[in-house]
Write a structure and sequence with these properties.
- The complex is a heterodimer.
- Chain A is α+β, with helices and mostly antiparallel strands.
- Chain A folds into three domains: about 5-10 and about 65-260 and about 275-300, Dynein light chain 2a, cytoplasmic (Beta-Lactamase), CATH 3.30.450; about 325-465 and about 595-620, Dynein light chain 2a, cytoplasmic (Beta-Lactamase, 2-Layer Sandwich), CATH 3.30.450.30; about 470-585, Beta-Lactamase.
- In chain A, about 35% of the residues lie in helices and about 15% in strands.
- Chain A is built from 19 helices and 20 strands.
- In chain A, the strands form five sheets. Chain A has a six-stranded antiparallel β-sheet with strand order 1-6-7-8-4-5.
- The radius of gyration of chain A is 26 Å and the shape is globular.
- By secondary structure, chain B is α/β, with parallel strands linked by helices.
- Chain B has one domain (about 5-250): Rossmann fold.
- Helices cover about 40% and strands about 15% of the residues of chain B.
- Chain B is built from eleven helices and six strands.
- Chain B has helices at about 1-5, 25-35, 70-75, 90-100, 135-140, 140-155, 180-190, 200-205, 215-240, 245-250, 260; strands at about 10-20, 45-50, 55-60, 80-85, 115-120, 205-210.
- In chain B, a hairpin with a 2-residue loop joins strand 2 (about 45-50) and strand 3 (about 55-60).
- Classes of the chains: A alpha+beta, B alpha/beta.
- At the A-B interface, helix 3, helix 8, helix 13, strand 12 and helix 14 of A face helix 2, strand 2 and helix 10 of B.
- The complex binds guanosine-5'-triphosphate and magnesium ion (MG).
- The site of magnesium ion (MG) has 5 residues of chain B, from helix 2.
Chain lengths: ~625, ~260
């Protein structure tokens, strides 16, 4: 009895397919290539693949939606492309689920059978009746979310959710039955392995708990065949799954991004959660209690995750996995670095100066920098945390934070303070491994503040700004992103990129997003797993783009639509020359170091050896 | 005491504790910046310096989120006053004070004073909906206390309502009466092994405030500051070598930050 049902939301209808089908053919952007072209080997998973979809969507013919499964065992695509809402079950009669007929007696019948618990999505892959279970889950989901696909209706459950969340502004209190909810460009859900909702970007987790339950049912069902579900493609949406430890992250996107990019974004979400709780404590919690409601621990962190997702959508740093630093005359950057270098205290490991959400300089502890370098993703998470928590900026913040790529299991203690109240654009971030070091670290800030006042640094920083592409002096060039790779002499440096301000015609948010989408498309082509490219010249409707990756750099450029290929190549040569000339201003070239380790025998690993300490740092829970 | 100005300024540490969303950050913000504005849930703790006469008072606004629970005792170390904050429309937030937060105060000073503050009074109490005439509020403390008890007696609701959300969903019901808070105050004294008669009386140490309108907010902080200073001075005179001198040193030299803080 093999049944796989997909139900995500009314028109997120699906057909199954295997990951391997994509290989050998380029991953198309939106209109996925017909999997029927390729042979679809029959795997153990799905001799029959019933599909569930909402009747409100027009019956597509020759749809090419598919689910990909990360395994050699490949499931077959039901060749009939059946899109009916019927659920076939070898074991019993098919139960009809029609989302339009919310009062359908068959629905109620299916619902009356299962127990009421919501956390009872099977985690046991061997559960023999998982197929039926999924059916049940779906039926339940349908009933509880009967509003879905039926405009203007809302269940009591949803109303309650709204009521509870009414105090919170944001998207938390969105009506998950409304069309507007479904039309969001990118949904992100986080749930526990037991199917408990943890986070939803839009709408409250409570209102969506059954939707998430279904997602989990899907994940566990595929798992029960020793497979991992990776993605589902539909005409309008890409659904990407990422399982990390006891957490399942799901992205439902109608953007043009590749699965790989979306998975990368889910990974950022996962890392942000880790940065607040550490991986070790999450595993510990779920080891003890599979049904633990992680929202208890993450309550209040929604805004941080919301902020992260907004940044991910609007800031190419995430796409490029590189840090953007504010262009600064190198003498000024050096003097700031020296100020940070002098204001130290034992166990201080990173001193970071930020202006307008971009890096000014970063100084690292010597022994730390020898072992590991700070990953761009960790910096992104730090910057996001600062952005999301700085509504009340006058105080000095002291908080534990984990840098998941540095070490996912231990905490640093972050001191965060603004140096220019009330404007609050220049922010100092000092990271220590010592929980008790607040006053000592705060004293470092006083020193830094004093030195900066003496050198008039703040007003100099205030003048610093991003640059205009016109400075490059290449007429057809509208915008670019340049990311140099590690070269031997700056190995262990933070990966950075440089990019001018987005100027006309990329002024409105829509236009900016459109350009970013084009870059994302170019990026997905360059980084395609099946057919990576080194150079792409892409003539779009309103502009021409050229992306180029070499062993030394990755470059994305955007030109006037009328540029010729030859012109573009010349322009790029000029651009590269200009970047080389401006290097010292555009990048943090030689990050300085200091030594704060009180005991020389104690290496940077000391911070890593604090793992056992993490229990009493943030979590005294278990 | 002219010598006080010559030695390092005494520092007092005041800590705000309480469940998330009860309005700790909003209270502090109302007091220091005279405004009520949008907040984000606090991460870890935030440190503020407030100049009170010739003294520097440090205030720690802590995160109520369970995620940061383990840090609470660190923020409380050496505290001279702890403000235990709850939300008058949320019974759970009061019981959390006893269940989750009280034990964090074990690291506070032995003579630490405790205030229990029911915030968001504007939601339940018409009196708290008006912006206060702050002068009259801080001048006569006892008046306010007597004033405040009246409406609660009328609408007395000593037992927790079964459902935390009112059905109407529009006007939140008052779930915690002042008597409940005062009873908790009594239990705290017992927990601390303090004699009720020699301690500050419950009706003086239980406040109902609104960060939104400013109701009782100045009264709260100023009462606490006044109560806390004599004990610090006494300690200074009795005991010149304070065991927390290293921390005091650091904080004492934090005078440069004053301008940037408050
Ligand atoms: N009506 C009303 N709302 C308030 C009042 N004080 C705070 N709020 C609201 O309650 C919410 C939480 O306020 P915060 O000050 O952030 O709460 P907190 O206790 O600092 O929360 P954590 O930092 O997460 O521990 C915000 O939406 C405030 O606008 C008040 O006096 N009246
Ligand atoms: Mg707060």
């Amino acid at each position: 009895m093999f049944i796989l049902i997909l139900f995500v939301c009314s028109n997120w209808d699906v057909i199954m397919d295997a990951d391997t089908l994509q290989e050998g053919e380029e991953q198309p952007m939106r209109n996925c290539a017909p999997p029927s072209d390729s042979e679809a080997p029959v795997g153990i998973l799905a001799p029959s693949l019933p599909l569930l979809r909402n009747h409100t969507t027009p019956e597509p013919t020759g749809r090419h939606d598919f689910v990909s499964v990360d395994e050699d065992q490949i499931s077959s695509l039901d060749p009939s492309g059946d899109t009916k809402v019927e659920l076939h079950s070898d074991a019993g009669p098919s139960s009809k689920l029609d989302s339009e007929e919310t009062d359908s007696p068959s629905c109620q019948r299916s619902v009356s059978t299962p127990p009421s618990g919501r956390e009872d999505v099977p985690t046991d892959p061997d559960q023999s009746d998982s197929g039926e279970f999924v059916v049940t889950m779906l039926a339940k989901a349908k009933l509880e979310e009967q509003g879905i696909g039926v405009k203007g209706r809302s269940s009591p459950l949803i109303e309650a959710g709204i009521q509870e969340a009414s105090a919170l502004a944001s998207h938390r209190d969105e009506d998950v039955t409304a069309d507007s909810w479904r039309q969001h460009r990118k949904h992100v859900f986080v749930l526990s392995e037991a199917g408990k909702p943890i986070y939803s970007r839009y709408g409250s987790e409570e209102a969506l708990s059954s939707t998430m339950g279904v997602m989990m049912a899907l994940v566990s069902f595929v798992q029960s065949g020793d497979n991992i579900i990776r993605s589902v493609y539909t005409e309008e949406h890409t659904v990407v799954f990422l399982q990390k430890g006891p957490l399942v992250l799901v992205c439902v996107s109608s953007s043009c991004q590749s699965e790989q990019q979306l998975r990368g974004e889910l990974l950022y979400v996962y890392y942000q959660i880790i940065s607040m709780l550490t991986q070790a404590s999450i595993s510990r919690i779920f080891e003890h209690k599979k049904n633990y409601d992680l929202r208890r621990l993450l309550a209040g962190s929604e805004k941080i995750l919301d902020g992260l997702l907004n940044l991910v959508d609007s800031d190419p740093s995430f796409l490029l996995a590189a840090v953007h630093c504010l262009p600064l005359v190198s003498s000024l950057r050096d003097s700031l670095s020296q100020i940070l270098q002098k204001a130290i205290t034992p166990n201080l490991v990173f001193s970071i100066l930020i202006a307008k959400n971009q890096l000014l300089t970063i100084v690292q502890e010597k022994t730390v920098i020898e072992d590991v370098r700070l990953e761009p993703a960790d910096v992104h998470l730090l910057l996001n945390l600062i952005g999301a928590s700085s509504a009340f900026q006058a105080g000095e913040i002291w908080t534990p934070i984990c840098l998941p790529l540095f070490n996912p299991d231990c905490y640093f203690y972050a001191y965060i303070s603004y140096l220019d109240p009330p404007e609050c654009t220049v922010c100092l971030l000092l990271l220590s491994t010592d929980k008790e070091a607040f006053y000592a670290v705060a004293e470092c800030k006083r020193k830094i503040e004093e030195a900066m006042t003496a050198q008039n640094s703040l007003s100099l920083i205030a003048k610093a700004q991003s640059y205009s592409v016109s400075q490059v002096g290449v007429s057809d060039l509208r915008h670019f992103m340049y990311k140099p790779f590690d070269v031997p002499d700056n190995y262990r440096q933070l990966t950075q990129f440089t990019s001018p301000e987005m100027e006309a015609p990329y002024c409105s948010d829509e236009e900016k997003m459109r350009l970013l989408d084009l870059y994302r498309y170019m990026h997905s082509r360059i980084h395609s797993t099946s057919r990576p490219l080194k150079l792409i010249y892409h003539v779009a409707e309103k502009e021409t783009l050229l992306a180029w990756v070499t062993s030394k750099f990755e470059l994305y450029t955007c030109f006037n639509p009328l540029v010729t290929k030859a012109c573009a190549i010349t322009a790029i040569t000029k651009l590269l020359r200009w970047i080389k000339k401006e290097e010292d201003r555009l990048f943090i070239r030689y990050p300085p170091k200091y030594s704060t380790t009180p005991n020389p025998s104690k290496s940077s690993k000391s911070s890593k050896s604090e793992q056992q300490d993490s229990a009493d740092n943030g979590l005294s829970l278990l | 005491m002219p010598d006080v100005s010559k030695m390092k300024k005494p520092d007092v540490k005041v800590v705000l504790l309480g469940d998330m969303h009860v309005g700790k950050t909003s209270l502090l913000h109302r007091y220091t910046e005279r405004k009520f504005k949008d907040t984000t849930s606090t991460v870890g703790g935030a440190f503020f310096l407030k100049q009170w006469g010739p003294y520097n008072i440090s205030i720690w606004d802590t995160a109520g989120r369970e995620q940061f629970h383990g840090l609470g005792s660190m923020y409380c170390r050496g505290a001279a006053a702890v403000i235990l904050t709850y939300d008058v429309t949320n019974w759970q937030s009061l019981s959390e004070l006893e269940e989750r937060f009280l034990s964090l105060t074990d690291t506070a000073n032995h003579d630490c004073i405790y205030a229990i503050v029911g915030n968001k009074a504007d939601l339940t109490d018409p009196k708290a909906q008006l912006s206060p005439n702050s002068d009259s509020f801080s001048e006569d403390q006892t008046d306010i206390v007597e004033d405040r008890t009246e409406p609660q007696v009328l609408s007395a609701c000593p037992t927790p309502p079964a459902s935390p959300t009112s059905l109407s969903g529009v006007v939140p019901r008052k779930q915690v009466s002042r008597e409940d808070a005062m009873a908790l105050y009594g239990r705290i004294l017992r927990y601390k092994g303090l004699d009720e008669k020699s301690s500050l009386p419950a009706d003086k140490m239980c406040f109902e405030t609104s960060a939104k309108t400013g109701y009782n907010v100045d009264a709260l902080f100023e009462t606490l500051f006044d109560l806390v200073l004599p004990s610090i001075l006494r300690k200074r005179h009795e005991n010149h070598e304070s065991p927390t001198v290293d921390l005091e040193d650091c904080r004492g030299s934090g005078k440069r930050v004053r301008s940037s803080c408050c």
